[in-house]
Amino acid sequence: MTHVQDLTLAFDALLEPEKFRDYGPNGLQVEGDRDVKLLVSGVTASRALIEAAIDVHADAIFVHHGLFWRGQDGRVVGWMRERLRLLLLHGIHLFAYHLPLDAHAELGNNAQLAKVLGFQMEARFGEQSLGFVGAPAHTWAKPQALADHVAHALGHPVVCVGGNDKPVRRVAWCTGGAQSYFEAAIALGVDVFITGEISEPQAHLAKETGVAFMACGHHATERYGAPAVAAHVAQALGLQHRFIEIDNPA
What we know:
Udp-n-acetylmuramoylalanyl-d-glutamate--2,6- Diaminopimelate Ligase, Chain: A, domain 1, 10 helices, alpha/beta
């Protein structure tokens, strides 16, 4: 059993949230009423994840997408009321780390995505150095071949735009909704940029620059960091850990 304060200190020491300018609070977002024996991890603090955590008698939940974001309506009504009601009724602690979880060099979303896809990270780029750049395990003959590999590895459809069927030797990536990093990736001279989502401007840039843009799913690209960090901390503190996947097509 671990006190919630010790668990908070362990997460903060690993992820260093004080180094980031983020869109919401990182760390303990909702305080429960007990020491922690079972830690559940997931991508988003959705009602479905909270209910699943209740079913397995979890004491704490660790996620990438928490409940509170800058600029949101502060009223506790509707879906927010229900999520908070369930957490408080069952005394479950909720931890959320956003950009710090993306950025961690070994256990974060970008690092874990690279491991799943067979990329070797060589450098970082973009705002707050959240983007990664490196090389795939081998040269892909064309972007679509890499897109097929990514779709198979993630179990999620991939939208691939541009690239001019040239070989893929260097890749940049940033999980989730990082389409705004595309121009910075183009400036690095990569062949492909991988993220979770695509917006209208990126399709034109991909076709005009010859750098392929791959949208691989926000959830699909960000489901590896939370269980990696939670498992690492749970092992260090002697806790049980369980990752619960709540499917999301986005």
